[in-house]
Amino acid sequence: MVNHQYNRGRAKEYRVMELLRVEGWVVGRSAGSHSPVDIFAAKDGKVLLVQVKNGEARVKKDELMELVKWAEAFDADAEVWHFKGRGSLVKRRVSKARG
User: What is the DSSP letter of 85?
Assistant: First the structure.
């Protein structure tokens, strides 16, 4: 059975990866992961952790707290990228690297 919701989410993760690559980031995806990080990226000594959401999906408080915890552990910036209706993308910074 095909999981359309998973496929849509995966497509958005690949879209985020492409957007970051165009900006010069080295990018990886945490495939099939249940971690708070969907996409990890690095550029010029910076690390970015991204949680990708699509449509009506929301980041739960505990997921957000875990994403911030990961960002602190990796001295990384963390963002939630939310694809809303008609392809609009909202980026929200949730944690800033110390360095």
Answer: G
